[in-house]
């Protein structure tokens, strides 16, 4: 909403604070390979592609997640936005300040939260949700419907059971009568907008251990309640790993920062 300073909120801590605690921090360093048997890891630093190696006694993997990119022609476009990191937030902020009509693809927590922000900023907002109701992973149907009618009262147009089939750049076409540059096609409708925000979920960044440990729900690294993977001395935490919930029989993929579920 622009009430707070985005940049100052975008990090929980700083390199300096961590180093003051005695933690060595290597930024612009990419782990390229992990061998769980020999306990070796290969990494590259900064812009140099020369592989370097190191050894570990215990390893905690926290490689996070990446946003799901739908297999739609036209999804790679300057006016199609993803929401994961600080750069994405700044790009969206710029978009919000300049443009008027937006389609949010995905009616989950992030999609609904962003839709409300756009609406409060005076934009015309569409939520396009493949499932038959919004927030279906978070709340029961009754509550979901109540939230939907609140959003609609605020002026947000909610389209459920609507799969986005295509996104088309119409900037130089006659289709764009009101000056909108993007057409979003669903099974039922064409919506002309200035930009599309894709918020249809995340996938775990688990490739480094993919063939070496047990992989669970949605490709997340399966861990027990002590965050141990199936390999000795290898742990995984955060968005790359599964979560154990007492009421749920199987370990599930739940990419949230606050997992304080009973
Ligand atoms: C818009 C948005 C809103 C959200 N709102 C909420 C909310 O309200 N409540 C909530 O609980 N959660 C929320 N979340 C989810 C929450 O942000 C994530 O669950 C959390 O940030 C995941 O942290 P992480 O450290 O596991 O992964 P990430 O934040 O994905 O960090 C992983 C890091 O690992 C690095 N990395 C990856 N591969 C390598 C490699 N090979 N070598 C070296 N480094 C590597 C990446 O560069 C990255 O910095 C939200 C997320 C988004 C995008």
From TrEMBL:
Keywords: FAD, Flavoprotein. Residues 22-249 form the FAD/NAD(P)-binding domain. The keyword Flavoprotein applies. InterPro entries: FAD-bd_OxRdtase (IPR050260), FAD/NAD-bd_sf (IPR036188), FAD/NAD-binding_dom (IPR023753). Its cofactor is FAD. It comes from the Bacteria. GO terms for molecular function: oxidoreductase activity. Pfam families: Pyr_redox_2. PANTHER family: PYRIDINE NUCLEOTIDE-DISULFIDE OXIDOREDUCTASE DOMAIN-CONTAINING (PTHR43429). This is NAD(P)/FAD-dependent oxidoreductase. It comes from Lactococcus formosensis.
